[in-house]
Amino acid sequence: MLRNKSNKVSIYYSDGYTIMRNPSVYGGGYVICNEKGEVLKHEVVEKQGLTNNEAELLGVYETLKLCAPFSKIIIDSMTIFYWVRSGKPKARKDLTLICSEAKRLKEEKKIEIEWKKRDFNLAGIFIEKMQFENKFL
Q1: C or N: which end of the chain has fewer Cβ atoms within 10 Å?
Q2: At what angle do helices 96-109 and 52-66 cross, to 10 degrees?
Q3: Which of 89, 50, 95, 57 is nearest to 73 (CA)?
Q4: In angstroms, rounded to a whole number, what is the distance separating the alpha carbons of residues 24 and 13?
Q5: Residues 34-69: pLDDT tens digits?
Q6: Are 31 and 126 in contact (CB under 8 A)?
Q7: d(Cα 58, Cα 70) in Å, to the nearest integer?
């Protein structure tokens, strides 16, 4: 794995969600955490028809924009993993622009995106906690 000048890899966690159902009539959002589990960004997306895949992609895209070169992003969606790697969302042609931009950022900044089970995604754990506490879902 490539490292930054300090020889330390910065790790980010990203996850998306929808409110009530998928697709949602209310919207959803995404959460970005650092390796300590601290929330760096939580954005609510008020969009009727927002899907979980769209929310997950927005989260990864925003993480790619804010992370330093040579970082690692942990996600729990294989669909988004493949969409960003290829720059092409198979089932969602309306998301092609954001996918291609995410791929460009990933390659330009030399970011590693890694899939892990949700149990190991700190952003997903934060979302589950908020759901349990009925904070936003």
Answers
A1: N
A2: 30
A3: 57
A4: 23
A5: 999 999 999 999 999 999 999 999 999 999 999 999
A6: yes
A7: 20
